[in-house]
Amino acid sequence: MSLYHPLTSEEAVRLARNVDDFFQENALLTCEEIGDGNLNLVFHIRDAKNGKGLIIKQALPYAKVVGESWPLSLDRARIEREALQIQHQLAPDLVPEVYGYDNDLAITIMEDLSDHTIMRRGLIEGQTYPLFAEHIGRFIAHSLFYTSDLGMNQQEKKLQAARFTNPDLCKITEDLIFDDPYRNSPNNSFTEDIRQEAEALWEDHELHLEVALLREKFLTHGEALLHGDLHTGSIFITQESTKVIDPEFAFYGPMGFDIGAVLANLLLNYCAQPGWSPDENVLSERRSWLLKSVEEVWQQFETNFRKVWNQDALDPLAKTPGYQDIYLQKVLRDTIGYTGAKMIRRIVGLSHVADVDTISDDTLRHEAKVAALHIGKALIKRGRYASSIEEVTLIARNAKAVGGEV
Q: Which class is domain 117-397?
């Protein structure tokens, strides 16, 4: 099995049996292909007797959402696996364990999280997660600090950054987030009821300036090893546990991009909640939790980041009074801008979110889309001048589903 080919279920089971000391020799194993993303096959292998399982993920050499006309490098499987291993080392309770891999087949064998729920699904169903902000704030702080020039030897960081050069998947991000939504691109995907709002994006030159600056940072500011696609579909969760998965977009980039991805998806669900909440009281409770979580994710990140900076910063100049405050202000402003950009791409770009698109009521679905676009534009334009995370939640509270700018 030295040459690449897409795995069959039978081959996946054979690979699972070869994982050392995992399944009993005579275990009756079942296999289900559960991948619902755009880039990979995902096999869930379980022992039918005791339910013990693992996951085998295989990268495809193209994007499933388009087909073989959109080729992708299989090296992204190595990038994802190495990112998982680094992140698991830095936050072992928040990242699944890797059991094995095969670079030729572009596969990673990892911990089964089927006792968790995909966070996006849980939010759509109205769940709240009391430990989420603390967990994800700590994950982001540790994974970013300890892979940056602040927390690791600068020469080792340069070597590590070279290993995470990820041109194919970065190209997807560069186009779908920072280019296509702001012009009449054939990659865009939106319904006719928001055509006016989509076309307004193409003519908003003030917005284009801010997006160009965000794009430039994404292209050139290799601050830390990013997850690269940290949305609520990349988080498995329970009331007590949070696990971050799928870092195949990992690369060295600006810290605020990862934080912004998390906040954007909380805000997209906030916009969608009128389509999922059965009455005004439930709507108010769910939306309050979402906005509180937006603030707490940042606060938990900042608290943890300052803590590890004060404990473990390697560069003596990092201890210079005032430097930490200026650094974190920069990250906050980047975060707010990237939050807005991630919201806009999910409404008019190629890949949407179920939070919004599966709302059954046409009017509420339309209003969710328009609200998300208005919040996204306001955050992008505010980012470079912001001074607190509360500005984000204030913009969200003041958003109008229809009408003029926020």
A: alpha beta
